[in-house]
Amino acid sequence: MSPKITTELLKQLRQVMKNPRFVQEPVQAYIVPSGDAHQSEYIAPCDCRRAFISGFDGSAGTAIVTEQHAAMWTDGRYFLQAAHQMDSNWTLMKMGLKDTPTQEDWLVSVLPEGSKVGVDPFIIPADQWKRMSKVLRSAGHDLVPVKENLIDTIWTDCPQRPCKPLITLDLSYTGVSWRDKIVALRSKMAERKVMWFVVTALDEVAWLFNLRGSDVEYNPVFFAYAIIGMNTIRLFIDGDRMMDPAVREHLQLDSTLEPEFKIQVMPYGSILSELQAVGAGLSPKEKVWLSDKASYALTEAIPKAYRYLTPYTPICIAKAVKNAVETEGMRRAHIKDAVALCELFNWLEKEVPKGTVTEIVAADKAEEFRSQQKDFVELSFATISSTGPNGAIIHYKPVPETNRTLSVNEIYLLDSGAQYKDGTTDVTRTMHFGTPSAYEKECFTYVLKGHIAVSAAIFPNGTKGHLLDSFARSALWDCGLDYLHGTGHGVGSFLNVHEGPCGISYKTFADEPLEAGMIVSDEPGYYEDGSFGIRIENVVLVIPAETKYNFKNRGSLTFEPLTLVPIQTKMIDVSLLTEKECNWVNEYHRKCREVVGAELERQGRHEALRWLLRETEPVARGQ
Amino acid sequence: MSPKITTELLKQLRQVMKNPRFVQEPVQAYIVPSGDAHQSEYIAPCDCRRAFISGFDGSAGTAIVTEQHAAMWTDGRYFLQAAHQMDSNWTLMKMGLKDTPTQEDWLVSVLPEGSKVGVDPFIIPADQWKRMSKVLRSAGHDLVPVKENLIDTIWTDCPQRPCKPLITLDLSYTGVSWRDKIVALRSKMAERKVMWFVVTALDEVAWLFNLRGSDVEYNPVFFAYAIIGMNTIRLFIDGDRMMDPAVREHLQLDSTLEPEFKIQVMPYGSILSELQAVGAGLSPKEKVWLSDKASYALTEAIPKAYRYLTPYTPICIAKAVKNAVETEGMRRAHIKDAVALCELFNWLEKEVPKGTVTEIVAADKAEEFRSQQKDFVELSFATISSTGPNGAIIHYKPVPETNRTLSVNEIYLLDSGAQYKDGTTDVTRTMHFGTPSAYEKECFTYVLKGHIAVSAAIFPNGTKGHLLDSFARSALWDCGLDYLHGTGHGVGSFLNVHEGPCGISYKTFADEPLEAGMIVSDEPGYYEDGSFGIRIENVVLVIPAETKYNFKNRGSLTFEPLTLVPIQTKMIDVSLLTEKECNWVNEYHRKCREVVGAELERQGRHEALRWLLRETEPVARGQ
User: Fold this and answer.
1) CA B469, chain centre distance (Å)
2) Per the omega criterion (within 30 degrees of 0), is the bond before B501 cis?
3) CA nearest B116: which of B22, B8, B222?
4) Cα three-residue angle B549-A524-A392, rounded to 5 degrees
5) Chain A partners of B471 at a C-beta cutoff of 8 Å?
6) Alpha carbon of A530: minimum distance to chain B alpha carbons (Å)
7) Cβ-Cβ contacts under 8 Å for B51 (sequence gap 6 or more)
8) What is the pLDDT of residue B1?
9) Closest Cα of chain B to A453: distance in Å?
10) Domain named Peptidase M24: which ranges (chains A, B) (predicted)?
């Protein structure tokens, strides 16, 4: 990775920051956030504006360019990568470190009095605008919306916004029709006395209409917005995708429908003017529901008194609780995914000693095995295939410059997943193809103990995921170890591999309580800089737990692993496990054998089946 | 407990709500919060306005009276008590239940358009004012400050504000002089570029000046404010307490001092006008530091642009980290406290079978034994002495109407503590003086496992207490049980038994990270309504932990119990303990024997010593 040379680009940007063609008044600073107009985590190439201007292409980061400075805020996952990818025009602001100023404080410290700070109002979430604007205003500056995106004005070879065909999902994949989802949404709206709901997140549009797309890599979504009224449905979407007969049939665009289920299709770019029209026509007490993370531009379209903002939308919450059909789909997807990984690990075991398997080769092989499975669509995120010291880079992705060859002397960490039409997977296994050291086994076993502590935890209905995070760390903490990331995230159903509103993290973000049907990941780790990385990740389903007592009739919950891939017993120091933990491992492996073994058999994959049987032999504490 | 009849009082209050003598314009609602002008948890009788108007005298609750309604918000600890103490004029609003409206939402739902909602600006914290005012304004109402407290206008026999003599604490108790505390405070102020600091919490004033008082029961504080400038010290305090030669000497009021350490003593009631004068005289960039929980009245005295508000003040944070002298004092206090409790439990064991010991008798006896100890000042909170079903009332305090006789058939729960000049104690033990049932033992053992899980936890430096809360619940959760309160609170050093900024709770309040020297309680419980209550509480000191590794050189912490009172082994189902837990119990009891045994011996309390020796016999899992 050599840094991107940005001297000329920054000069150009500083010119347009003063150019009356683009700005009403010159702006002394311009903010380039990570996101797109939908606050997506994964974005299309045309939205990678921050990467274009700085060279830094990690998933999280905000660039701010002033007349004198260019600064980049990112978090601990990306300190190294950002430092490598950016040239000396840029100052790296390491978020989470004590002495790193916030963006607002930094702006106040460098700007001349009475400055204007510009930002694209479609890219900045309303809650962030509010926070930032307040601090800037109190220091005598102004945050101003700049209609035309200034990066786009200098990005001469900016790629086109994708507009790929749609996939329709019938009831056998979704369990609930889009009509019934609209009915449920309207009843939530009625409960809150809200007349309109604006769908801004791409996965929420996709989920609501039982459609999928491929406008964004890894996330099966498409660029669209929707405005749902009590009697109207407006879908904002571009291209000839709506000409596809399957889509027209799915959305019943040509049928005679009750007017409240008639979908009006409108151009993607007309969302703002349509929403402004809605905003202008509101009667007193008619509220409009938006996520508080919706863009400033859309939020401002509704007069303040009429806004109803919540951190999580009713769609976000409904989408998180998978129904029986979705759960069954997720199970199927995970079995297929396990088949592919059994094939992969069996293959790696034979090939690694030859010294010809690089991280990229292994990642490609994993994709190859997955793509052989039914209803495979694409990967669900960039495969983290990392060996030795690369494993300690938590969000590593192998590129030719860093590509390392797997060997029998180093730990190999593979964090990968796929989109199948029936579900989304995300699994991490840490393997050794030679003989692991006692220290490596010790660390692996602490991580495993943490994984089991979460997976086997029983907790009351209504518990928030962040209350479980310490269970994952306790065994590491006892020895003075830890890992610097959260323990789990929500997983979509053939949707985004990261989704809200639940998760398991020490960060006390506003997570919603866990409930049966939610699906999260359980992925503690341990990383030794310059040496190795360990992570053990399963996707787990929240299920009711049977308990001896039932305090206040609240009911209890626990997790059921959906991921069924063997955990390498060679890496376990069994003497460090309790009897309960040992039983968990053996029961987990018994289930892998039973369920995945049957599927391997069915698919005639006998060599992988033999590998599975060997890898799932019970362990015993007496060893 | 028969309810207080409030019909006439409410009539009078509704009259003064419209009386131009007291309100500029009529108010359609009047809020009566719990607190005093210092946002104290424990308040003086003259500040018990909410109890006066409603009859409900629990420690937490907010009353709101409108022309038509009277409603009381309180939390789960007090649902029963509030329901008993209030008459039918009042509606109980059960906080924490899903369908309970917030105060703001309720006001919006009941008030006629364009209403005024009054509140005493000295009693409502600024952050709460802000939140409430915003919601009310957006619904077309106004929150207005009512200078004269309307309850006081109808409270004809309101007690006088206490003004008791002060206690001076020398270095052998505090470890640091008030001058050095001022120096440290000013350096924190300089760091944040703040010119003034306003001390509004009573325990912060007491701590800063190394003074104690007895204006409020259980909390050794006195009514005062202070304004600390970079070169000035103003102490606002009433009465002839400043005539006491010991106090004058302690504060060096008559010495020739550098001007920046000269204390100007001013009347308590002059804080507002003095602070307004400070506010009026500020140059640009001169900020004034206040807690965001300081009263609205004081916060408003400083123009908005000049306020520097934080959830925790530098005094709150400094006060929480006990120095070596304070820690030694706390140790001594806990040894004396243990001596008193060994005497008590030995006495109870003999007396309970006679059927003559009531909850009140036991509480009085505990106080009697404590008062025999050196430097005893008073109790640190109202003793919770509860047997059988009363034990399930979490914040029970025995009164003649509920006073139950201890017996050999019921569990007895004693949660009590004292103020000694060298430290503050708070300990809960749950005992059975006959033969506990298997179920009682089972529940006790889960609670004990939770207590040990927190006490023995090892966690990285910088960990916040709320991340430890689930450790205390895990054993209970496994069986479907739980308890509906936090696990621990900060404990003052001869100061308030509950103090910020740290604690252990599932509520993710803004707790500060735990650090060595902080002192918190560890008190999981289990409560079976109508049957029994179990709680095991130690006060524990945060200390550095020795660990095998040291991730990123962060260092680790753990807890050392300061409380050294035997945990009744008769109540333990040893078969449910792990070996590690069993060892913890035996090691704890070994330490009780060694440390408290020596003190019992020194004090010649041989019978209690024999009780201690018997109660601290090791347990074995083979039993």
Assistant:
1) 18
2) yes
3) B22
4) 65
5) 470, 474
6) 13
7) B57
8) 61
9) 10
10) 328-542
ipTM of the complex in this document: 0.93
Residues 6 or more apart whose CB falls under 8 angstroms from that of A205 comprise A199, A211, A221, A222, A224, A225, A226, A235
Best mutation site among A134, A464, A467, A527 for testing chain B: the one with the most B CBs within 10 Å?
Answer: A467
Cβ contacts of B508 on chain A, cutoff 8 Å: 466, 508
The residue to which tokens 């607002």 are assigned = A104
Look at residue A191 and give its three-state secondary structure: helix
Distance CA A17, CA A68 (A): 13
Q: Which residues of chain A have pLDDT under 70?
A: 1, 508-510, 623
The answer to whether residue B470 neighbours chain A at the CB level (below 8 Å) is yes
Q: What is the model's pLDDT at position B80?
A: 86
CA distance A338 to chain B (A): 30
CB contact under 8 Å between B480 and A305, yes or no, is no
Find the distance separating the first CA and the last CA of chain A, reported in whole Å. Answer: 46
Q: What are A153's two structure tokens? A: 């004005």
Q: Which residues of chain B have pLDDT under 70?
A: 1, 508-510, 623
Contact B535, B544 (CB under 8 A): no
Cα(A508)–Cα(A334) distance, integer angstroms: 29
Say what the alpha-carbon torsion angle B539, B544, B549, B551 is, to the nearest 10 degrees: 100
Pairing of strands A287-291, A307-310: parallel
In one-letter notation, the amino acid at residue B57 is D
User: Is A182:A261 a contact under the CB 8 Å cutoff?
Assistant: yes
> Which of A13, A140, A67, A42 is CA-nearest to residue A424?
A42
Helical (H) or strand (E) element with B211: strand B211-212
Rounded to 5 degrees, φ, ψ at B124 are -90, 130
- Pinpoint the alpha helices (H) of B36-117: 49-54, 79-85, 103-110
Helical H runs in A192-236?
202-209
Q: Does A471 contact B470 at a Cβ distance shorter than 8 Å?
A: yes
Structural domains in chain A, CATH included, are 6-153 (3.40.350.10), 167-319 (3.40.350.10), 321-615 (3.90.230.10)
Question: In a 3-state reduction of DSSP, which class is residue A335?
Answer: helix
Residues B156, B157, B160, B161, CA torsion sign: negative
The amino acid sitting at B410 is E
Q: Report CB contact under 8 Å: B305, A138.
A: yes
Which residue is listed with tokens 């001058």? B179
The backbone region for A281, taken as left when phi is positive above 0, alpha when psi lies in -120 to 50, beta otherwise, is: alpha
Tokens found for residue B488: 């621990």
CB contact B480 to A (< 8 Å): yes
Distance from CA of B36 to the nearest CA of A (A): 31
DSSP letter for each residue of A15-77: HHTT-TTT-SS--SEEEE-S--TT--SS--GGG-HHHHHHS--SSS-EEEEESS-EEEEE-GG
Starting from the edge strand earliest in sequence, which strands make up the sheet with B418-420, in order?
B376-379, B418-420, B423-424
DSSP structure string for B547-559: -S--GGG--EEEE
Residue from B46, B51, B9 nearest B34 by CA:
B51
| pLDDT one-digit tens code per residue, A48-73 | 999 999 999 988 999 999 999 999 99
With contacts defined as CB-CB under 8 Å, which chain A residues touch B469? Answer: 467
C-alpha distances out from residue B406 to A195, A466, B355, B473, Å: 61, 41, 7, 29
In this complex, is the C-beta atom of A456 within 8 Å of any C-beta atom belonging to chain B?
A: no
Interface-testing mutation among B470, B476, B528, B531, with chain A (most A C-beta atoms within 10 A): B470
The residue whose two tokens read 């054993």 is: B475
Q: What is the DSSP letter of A210?
A: T
Preceding omega of A501 cis (within 30 degrees of 0)? yes
